[in-house]
Amino acid sequence: MGRRTGARARAAADSRARVLAAARAVLSDPAGLAWGMETVAAAAGVTRMTVYNQFGSRTALIEAVLDQVVARDRMDQLLDGTSELDPADALHAALVTTCRFWHAERPLLRRLFAAAYAEPAVAALLARREGWRRDQFASLLGRAASALHEDSALLDLLVAVTSFPAYDHLGPTADAPDVAADLLHRLIRELVVPEPTTRIAGPDSEGVRVDGRLQLRGKAGRDDPAAPTEHPRDEQTRHSST
To answer: The whole model's pTM is what?
Structure first.
């Protein structure tokens, strides 16, 4: 009895693996037409009833395919292994993982994002997963600065710029995911991890660099905040009048 049960379990697991592989292949085929459970069943070499018994619905099958590829490429663990990194390096690591996933699953994701326009169930599925990605980036912002964790506009921008549709519009750059990750990192790094305030002293003035911008202050009034600062044009006028 135990042997028969074990054999049935192995057969079911093998059948499920074949259906998932077939579904991913069918969805990733850019020349593929509208597909359904029958198409997947034929590609997997099983009956349509077998597919329904294992997954229940077309949307559930799509979700199972996404679960498999996400777990394989660790898209659900973007910040794993980054606890010892500073926020800028953690951001880069997350972008590398993200871009490699977008690149590896580009045909599949193109089909799903296109289907989302006409199928609310697929749109909801993708939106839920984008929400999980958003949560991970929110955690990263919180590590950079506690105030950023509450900045929903910045978080919206970060999620949009690093989304699959944005990646897919990068043209030839999208064919090199690590190059794309570097490009995105340069684009958004200072939004997420602003440069610290630093002081720069000169012979006649001192400057304060705030978020990469240099603000100069004359030294004449440094010790006396109330001391007026004479403009060069005022000084020229004063001399000409004497």
So the answer is: 0.74
